[in-house]
Amino acid sequence: MTTLTQDEIRALGKVGVLLGGRSAERDVSIMSGTGVLQALQSQGIDAHGFDTGTRSLAELAAEKFDRVFIALHGRYGEDGTLQGALELLGIPYTGSGVMTSAIAMDKITTKILWLKEGIPTPAYAVLQADSDLNAVAAHLGLPLIVKPPHEGSSIGFSKVTALADFQAAYDKCAPLDDSVLAESFVQGREFTVAVLGTGADARALPVVEIVAPEGDYDYQNKYFTDVTQYFCPPQLDQATQAEMQRLAVQAYRTLGCEGWGRVDVLLRAEDNRPFLLEVNTSPGMTSHSLVPMAARAVGMSYEELCVAILRTARLKNARN
User: N- to C-terminal Cα distance for the chain?
Assistant: First the structure.
C-alpha cells in the first residue's frame, strides 16, 4: 500500500467525511462513512466525521473543512441538494456536481438521456395514481419491476409476476416518491461496473457479478447477510465484459459524472445483451460494497481507493 508523504497529507488539509444524513439509506451511509473515515485517518489525514442528519449547514461551515468526502446515499446527499450547498459554501467535494447528481438520482430522467444516446436500458412506464395498470402490464409484459425512481439500495423494489399483485407493488412505492417506475423484467445475470475519473479520463474497473439467493439482491442481501456471492472477475468471456465496461463509461459520461460512480447492469440470458439500470454517484463503501471489491482486483487497497477519490474533490461551478 502506498504511503502518503507529509506534504501530500498537508495538501489535503482538514477533511470532512459526510455521513448519515436523512434518507432511507442512513444506516448504510453510516457504515460507508465510518469505513472511509477510518481509512483516511489510517493514512495520517486530518479527517473528521460529520453527520448531516443531526448537524446543520451552519455547523458544517464552521468546521472550515478544506474538502469533504461525500459518503451519503440517497436523498439530501446523493441527489444534488447537498452538492448545491457545498458550492455555495465554497467547500470542494467528491463525486458529481449538482445537475449530474440530480439526474442520476432520477432513474426516469437517466433512462431518457441514455435512450437518446442509444444506451440499452429496459423498457419502462411512469406510473401515477390514475395509471391504467392493466395497459402497462400489457405493454411491458410480465413479470415486471416496480420501484421508486428516487430511492436506492432496492428500497421499495418489487417484482410483479401476476397482474393481481401490480396494485400492491405500486402502493408500496407511492409513499416514497411522486411517481413510480415500472420496468420490463430482464431475465439474466446481474453485474456492476465501477468507474473512476472524469470525462476523457474516466475508466472502468473490472466487472463484478452479483449472485444473490434466488436472484433477490434486496436491501438485506446487499448489506446485512453473507449469502450473496460476488465474482470479480466473473465467469464471462472477455468481449462481453469489455462491452459492459464500454457501455458503463459511455453512460457515466453521458450524465456528466465525475470522480467515481458505479453502473448496474443486467445481462439478458437469451442473447447476452447488456441492459443498464442506473448510475450510483455516491456508491456504498461498506464491507459488502462493490467499488472496493473491483478496486482490489486491480491491486488498489480500500485505503488507496479512499485517498484517490478524496484527491478528486473540487468545486464544479467555480470559474477559477
Answer: 34
